[in-house]
Amino acid sequence: MLRGAGCRNNWAMLRRISSLAVVLLVCAPFLCAQIASCGPTVYDCAVFYVQHQQFRKAIGVLSNLLRESPQNLRALNLLGIAFTETGQIEKANSAFSQALAVDPHFFPARKNLAINQFNRKRTADAAAQFSEVLKDAPGDEIAQLYLGEIKFRNKNFPAALKHYEKGRTKISLQTSWVLHYAECLLAAKDVEKATGVRQGYCSAKRMRMHKPLNFLHQQDKDTAIPTLPAITKC
User: Fold this and answer.
1) What is the pLDDT of residues 84-133, one digit of tens each?
2) CATH of domain 39-103
């Protein structure tokens, strides 16, 4: 009797194992598809989450990645971006600073640190950081535009105008940049150009008013794009 009961128990266990194997075989393609949709690497998954504004998921993924690779510059920078978007500015700046401690010339992290400092009205530090960015990336237009904003706040319109001119192709990303650029042109008595800048901005605004602004720069996924503020009526 005991032997027969043991056989029955063994057959029952085998049936359960077989059923579990079938379930796993059915679920495996789904799990693979889910991972594939996120990205081919852990970092790519984090980028995916940031692009889709799932910042807390990105923070979790990046934190795990950095436990294994604490000097991963791109991961540290992206973690700072995710922290910034969740309002955790101190943690964000810490992540950017960690990246710069590894490589002081990694300008995407320095630029994001500078943007956070600018938004916190720590303009002296922001100006110093943006100036450092331009030493490593002389053609960086975002740094030029923020320096233009800092000069504009200080009512140094000629200096601001020079920075705005160097960031012309990116200037429409923020309403304030366009309007302040036009004001600087007016201060320089270039009324025709100021009028053209404003009219061009209004035309571009009408074309893109229903299009969302991507968080990450199209050509540099390591750098955050500032959020577009409310648009002044044209």
Assistant:
1) 999 999 999 999 999 999 999 999 999 999 999 999 999 999 999 999 99
2) 1.25.40.10
Give Cβ neighbours of residue 205 (< 8 Å, ≥ 6 apart).
231, 234
Identify the three-state secondary structure at position 216: strand
The whole-number average pLDDT for the span 136-146 is 97
- Sequence-distant (6+) residues with CB within 8 A of 98 are 76
The correct CATH number of 124-234 out of 3.10.290.10, 2.60.40.420, 1.25.40.10, 1.20.120.530 is 1.25.40.10
Tens of pLDDT along 181-200? 999 999 999 999 988 888 87
Q: How far apart are CA 25 and CA 22, in angstroms?
A: 5
Q: Across all residues in the chain, what is the average pLDDT? A: 80
Look-up of token digits 């995710």: 82
Neighbours of 215 (CB within 10 A): 18
- Residue 96, judged by CB atoms within 10 A of its CB (0-12, 13-18, 19+), counts as buried
37-41, 56-60, 190-194 — most confident range: 56-60
39-103 and 124-234 have identical folds: yes
b/e map 34-71, b = 16+ CB within 10 Å: eeeebeeebbebbbbbbeeeebebbbebbeebbeeeee
pTM, to two decimals = 0.73
